[in-house]
């Protein structure tokens, strides 16, 4: 009898052990941003969706409570005091396993970055293309991947997930086609710049950096790289503090005029490196540091696709003559092709280095375009268009790439465009289509210098002698371009701070304080409230002092007070 009782106790103990729940931590995984939780009816085994959680959620899972229904396995999970079920296939042991998509589809054409440290472009992903997913970097609290690691043929690299979707039909859609396609299809390709409809107009999620606040209106002075200018930064600071100036734009690289000996120059363009000032780095460090200490916002300016020194070092990236294969000289300079991703990489790496080394708040890219006035020689030129892009597509895609890579180091990006880009009805011959650029860049900087307009433009006789009228008329056209842009950039305009050039009009007006003020008021009366930057290539302090009255005014505050 004693042995029998002992046996019964052992049996009960075994049964009790077999029914005890075994709970382990698992992570919710999914091939999309979220995953379902289910209820299962105890009598009918009916399965119903009861909740949705983002992937990556940590759950307590009853690992010995598995249910198998219709060839699908479920495990009980505890959420607070509630108990649900999740698919066994979507419960993983490691956080790195929560992203389960095997492929993605490209919604917005984007660069595939083969080396994220150096922003090296390994390939280009086209709209609707399917990419194999082989990894990812991080996911956010909403379960969204930052960058996927993908395979495209023989190329492996990173692509930002924001340019991809999970469904091909969704990838092939155009953003609000019923609204925007009608607008952009009507834009003519009169001069070979490309079809506007070929650009992408999905909204851009605007970045805001916690420790880098852009002024609502930047009132900016331009400084060149001369030691008499940036080497004399205290004098410019003293002057600016007597005015409403809150921003300085400093050259980093202009065509045949590199600033300091940057490591990016040494690596990608030794000629730029050798021609840069050997003592300039200390001047840059002091200038940017002192400007920050005094509360100024600091922008570094880089010319992109006009760079004779880069072409000298790498003739293979140049726009070339078909007949000779030699680099094509235009406007006294050699031009790297905007289609060439190695040119993109050099300029962006230079920008990233300047942000990291000196703390520039923003990078301003100039010459983000193909050469102008090329109509007569277009058929004689080879642009080396590897990805079969139009000019407007190449320029938009460079802006997208530059913004992504420079945002990653905590700085904003502004893009310079010709004043002509504000005109409706056609894409420009050099690839600048205002809505395509404004939709992506943080800031778009038109260059509507009054003495660049031809006589009678907008119906204004000698527009260079009527700075208010010409800038207001131009600004109103800009507003039209901004309105057909889903996520328009801040408009901060380059203004003429030099006198009318003699070849334009020997009797043209002097751009003194009164006329500079008229330019700015024209912009503000047209509703362009993002500020201005002076273009005076000499950056002469005496000239700026003579224009001081224009810089004493807080135009935004005045506008809001009315």
Q: Which structural category do the helix and sheet elements fall into?
A: alpha/beta
Tally of separate helices: 16
As an assembly, this protein is: single chain
The whole-number mean of residue pLDDT values reads 95
Query: Class of the largest domain, according to the CATH hierarchy?
Result: Alpha Beta
Distance between the termini: 103 Å
Instruction: Please compute the radius of gyration using only Cα atoms.
Output: 30 Å
Total domain modules? 3
Q: What is the CATH third-level topology name of the largest domain?
A: TIM Barrel
Strand content: 25-35%
Main sheet? Answer: 10 strands, mixed
CATH superfamily of the largest domain: Glycosidases
What do these coordinates show?
Residues 4-17 have low confidence and may be disordered. This protein has 3 domains: 21-97, Roll (SH3 type barrels); 103-173, Roll (SH3 type barrels), CATH 2.30.30; 196-304 and 341-373 and 390-561, Glycosidases (TIM Barrel, Alpha-Beta Barrel). The chain is of the alpha/beta class. The chain is built from 16 helices and 29 strands. Strand 2 and strand 3 (47-54) form a beta hairpin. Strands 16, 17, 18, 19, 23, 25, 26, 27, 28 and 29 form a 10-stranded mixed β-sheet that branches. Strands 1, 4, 5, 6, 7 and 8 form a 6-stranded antiparallel β-sheet that branches. Strands 14-13-12-9-15 form a 5-stranded antiparallel β-sheet. The longest helix is centred in the N-terminal third of the chain and has 18 residues, at 2-19.
